[in-house]
Structure formats: structure tokens, C-alpha cells
Structure prediction request, 400 residues.
Amino acid sequence: MDLIALAIAPGLAICIFIFTRDIYNREPALNLFMSFFFGVLSIIPAFFIETYLDRQMADTATGIAIKSFFAIALVEESCKFFALRYYAYRQKSFDEPFDGIVYSVMVSMGFATLENILYVYGSAQHGQGYQVAFMRMFLSVPAHASFGVLMGYYAGRAKFELIKEKRFLLLGLFWAVLFHGIFDTLLFWQQSPVITKYASELALFAGAVVSFIVALRLSMKLIYKHRLFSQRKYRPTEKLNLRRASESDIPLIRDLSLKVWPQTYASILSTDQIGHMMEMMYSEPALKQQLKQRNEFVIVNDGADPVGFASFGPDSPGIYKLHKIYLLPNMQGKGAGKFVIDQIVAAMKRKGAMALRLNVNRNNKAVDFYNKMGFEIIREEDIDIGNGFFMNDYVMEKKL
Prediction:
């Protein structure tokens, strides 16, 4: 029983780890179980194909490498790929890129768990069951998981970038086979006296460990990348935070404004007026001047990534003015604007403000957004900004 527990534990632990990473849009338990189950079944064709091909391979350095890459890595990863592609990939619940990693790891852990049981029990016949169980717990089973992440990352991209679907699916298989092949080649070379004449077993084992660590680090980066996409899709404001900007942030504010401002007003203002206003409000000298005029700027971060900015300051006794609030296009319509305004309103209340006021172009769709946020139109203004251009605004106000 102890050996069974040791053989099952690493695969189960990795499944739980991946499940806990998938917190934004969790997959149905049945689909996860079936993916694991098909991963278990995929070892059957892999076993017969590997057994046949193994008989054809020479016991030379080249023969071992060919066996590792083609008779083992390609066969095993292809069998896992078919379970992923023709079961999980077709499920309606596969509705975001991170699901590719989740399902691929479940398939890989199904395969690795049964393989682990067979290896451990086979070794137990020679009195080495515990040694093999512990070795595989920290190396072989996590390696299978990292290969699964590589495959799943590209499967997730393939599902939602259909123009490159076949390319991404093949890329996922390629990277899984590549790292699996390198890992197995170095391990199997340890067992060949032909190779150990020139390289120590310790050096070969260290090489296998290094290849595993590289695959593991890469897989963790890919998990983070897809998981960040999930967070931004399902809980876009979870990692949003505001920080006060300083003069050193002026280049950042200008860069953000160039990505947002012209696009926001392209259908409202002429190209000439947009150029004039960008120079008037967002040139570095203009931004420096605004900072000197008691206008406070804040940078909106999503985690560590700057995604927008806002500016506000006192307007008249008891009233503060929101001069600017702009977010990158991929953050719009997801609650980020509401989050920023709520944070600013809370800060203004602490300063004793009774109202927050702003100007917005009368043709800007943001008017509806501000209405929903509790702002009311109190008047219209047509402001001469020079060169024959005007800002045709509503003045809106929110009572605090």
C-alpha cells in the first residue's frame, strides 16, 4: 500500500496544483476526470508501439538518442496529444487559453501515474521500489507535467487563434517531444557503458536534471502567461492598483496617452485637432506644467503593468475636478474605469470634497459611462483652445 501511495501521490499532487491555479473559470470535474482517464488509457498504445520500436534500435549513443526521441518521446507525447486533441479540445468548457494547460496536464498525469505505478512495482521486485518511487516523485512525474504544460500552452493558443490552429498544435507537440527526448536521452545514456567511457553517470544525470529545470521554468512562465489572461478576462480589476505619479513618470504618461487618446477621439475630432491637443496637453513640457499646478497624476497598474492614468485636483472650495482618466483599449469595458473612479472618489472624500466634476466631449460615448457612475450634466461648455479649434464639452458632476 505504501508503494501504491508513493506512486500515485506525485501525479495527484500536480493535478491538485493545476486545479488550484485555475481559479477564474474552473473546468467541470467530470471533464478533468475523463482527461485523466484518457491519459491512463493512452499508455496502452504507447506501450505496444514502444515495445516494437525498441527491438529495432541499436545500443549505441546514436541508437539510444533515436530511441529516446522517436520510440519514447514522440510515441508517448503523441498518445497524450490524441487524448487532449480528441477529447478535451472538443469540450464546450474549453473556453479560454489556460484550459489547454489544465487539460493537457490532466492527461499527462493520467499517463504518468500509471507509468509510475508500473515502474515502482517493477523495481520493487528487485528491492528498489522506494528508491525509484522517490526518484520519480521529484523528477520523472514533474517532467511529464512540464511537457504537458508546453503542449497545453500551444493547444490553448490553437483553440482561439484559428488561423494558426494547426501550426500551434504541432508546435505544442514539437516542444513536448523535444524536451522529453533530451531528458530521456541523458538518462538512458547513463545505463550505456559505451557512453560512460566518455562522460560520468553523474554528469549525464546532471544534464537530465538541467533539461528538466529548463522545461519546468518555461512551463511555469507559460502557466503565468495564460493565467494572467484568465484573470484579466474574468476578474479584470483583481490586481488593479493606483500609485501616485511623479515627474519621472512623464514619459510613461505620454506613452500611454499616445496609445489611448488618438484612438478615443478618432471618430470625434479631426486629425489636426487631435495633433494640436496632444501637443497642448501631453507634450512633456505640458505635463510638467500640469504637475506644477496642483494636478495630481496617478498611474493605473494591472499587477506590475501600467495600463492607464488619471489626473485630478482642486477646482473650487469643496469641489475637485477629474481632469483625465484613460485606460488602454484592452482594459476598457471590464470594470477598470469604475474601479479607478471609485478609488479617486474615496480619496476625495477623505480630503473633504463634496463633489467631483469633469469635462467630457459631448459626442464621446463615455458620457453614458459617467451617467452610470452617478455623474449628472450641469451645463455645456465650448472652450476655445486656439488654432480655430474648440472643445465642445458637457460639464458633469457627481455629489459625494
Summary: The radius of gyration is 29 Å. Residues 201-234 form the longest helix (34 residues). The CA atoms of residues 139 and 209 lie 8 Å apart. The mean pLDDT is 91.
